[in-house]
User: What shape does this take?
Amino acid sequence: MATREEELLAPYLQVRSVLGADGTPVGPEPDLTPDQLREIYRWMVFLRVHDQRLLTLQRQGRLGTFAPFSGQEACQVGSAYLLEPKDWIFPTYRDHGAMMVHGLPEVNVIRYFMGDEWGSRAPDGVNVFPISIPIATQLNHAVGCAWASKIKGEDAVAVGYVGDGGTSEGDFHEALNFASVFNVPAIIFVQNNRYAISVPLHRQMKSRSIAQRALAYDIPGVRVDGQDVLAVLSVFREAIDRARSGGGPTLIEALTYRYGPHTTSDDPKRYRSQEELEEWQARDPIERMRRYLVAKGLWTEKEDEDLWNWAREQVAAAVAEAEAMGRPDPAGIFDYVYAELPWHLREQKEKLLAELARRQGEVKRHG
Amino acid sequence: MNVPKSTLVQMYRDMVTIRVYEETMAQVYLEGKQPVFNIAAGPVPGEMHLAAGQEPVAVGVCAHLRKDDAVVGTHRPHHFAIAKGVDLKKMTAEIFGKVTGLGRGKGGHMHLFDPEVHFSCSGIVGACIPQAAGMALAFKMRKEPRVAVAFFGEGAANQGAFHEGLNLAALWKLPVVFVVEDNGYAISVPKHKSTAIATNADRAAAYGIPGVYVGENDALAVYEAAGEAIARARRGEGPTLIEVKTYRYFGHFQGDPEVYRPKDEVARLREDDPIQKLKNHMLQSGLFTEAEIAGLEAEAKQRVEEAFAFARASAYPDPSEALMHVFVD
Assistant: This one.
């Protein structure tokens, strides 16, 4: 007989899936048109190509520190695909996939990772917040945004993205408590990729799932196969409907894996085994969706080849556009925070500009 | 539950001491601050948070603690300090800002530190939670059979520090007990307006540790719950989260207009007084006579009087001490 604890935790340990590892349906398929299914697949392929290309650019010194998301495409697409333009997303540094799905141009993402703050400036009407580098702070921003939506009588939903490591932060607790007590239209989306940089989950928490943390806030907590885009999409559809109809927040934990490093400045071989990586690659979200589409008669090998080529062209064009924009202006670090610069920052800015002018003069003399 | 007579004596004496202490402080605090309220004036300058009504939490837990176990309290710390055995004269002198105080008069009422009995507290809401977890980590690493206790209010349970402290304590199986004093209000905000869940004890499930709810403001009920939790911690079985429903008779601070609660709420709460409840239990147990209990009460009153007299008679620190105890060099 199950103990009381097991009974309590059972719903938070179950993993929702739609597709099996080979792409055959194992659960109820979400109601989507063939065009939507193909679009979802196209997004995942595009994100994979984008991610691999940016990783290469970083290695060539053409991009700053970069956090690749390859392996997590189902989470990126599944979480953002059903959002409406009025909804908001509050991303981490590994969520630029979701940001693009929600409307951020690719060139912004590339400029951001080139160190240009302009990249964080989403075009008007694209409700994407700038990437949050501090861990978990964006969850409070998401809940605040959702609260505003509620107070204004709007039905816009806010999604706060966070990793497994971020759930150990105090901000996670404060955000979930407020989300629940004010009953706001927020979704807290945890991409549990099993490592907080290099620290494995079992060394971060004693709890058996992240979803069970919903118990502490009296809100729904859902666990989903994060390598199964249709499953992620299905749990998001429920959470979005709940939020939009006034039913309050949901905590979603997706079980996923990043194939690459935490960022371009660490070496995952130091803390993960090759076998583990291969195990996850065997459950690749893109390949799984491809098989599903082929089995349904919605996709051909030729279309697939064309798609990968199309994606490469798209990414190459965006990279060319971003590189044509030149280097970001160093004085830009003083802009966009204060409407009017305080005197000490004004002085620093003048000093920097003078120093840059002096160096340029030197280059000219020696050049 | 069979509670030894000596424990009943200790708990009752401490509860009466706390009550008399807080009621005396409420009077002394007003000296010099009237008719126009001036927070800096009188023998006790600064803010004052009193714990009358909340005695059961402090005495029920501390009755199980040894001298070398650690307690970290809150901005409302007097009841914990008294129950943990902090020297009452030095504590009062500290609150008066005198040189004979625990911190030579520098800390005041929210910063009582007594290394003799391993007591500390601070005005930062929720800070005690990771601090107690850190002490417990030290005890565990040094293989000492000691326990740390963090006391905090239900408002603090919504702070990020709560989550971080409980997560690590659970993960590392630390010898610590987290005790939530639910007095119903985070300053002026009622619990249901700040907290997503009815009882914080249920939050233990998020960390995979035991959670215990004590639904009455009763010293013996707290004593029972805390006994099991502290024994678990000492056996190396990890932390426990306890929440106790309690009452605060005074405002959040002295001078609080208390417009956030019904006018007659405190009068109603006082009808179910925890000191009277323990007294009834002691008399019914047949272990005590009325005279014995009256003797404990007189003893408590005398201690409080002596402590206040000591504080009044002590000198203020020399201004040259202002820079002492900050940097080693």
About this structure: The two ends of chain B are 54 Å apart (CA to CA). Chain B has eleven helices and eight strands. The domain at 5-308 of chain B is CATH 3.40.50.970 (Rossmann fold).
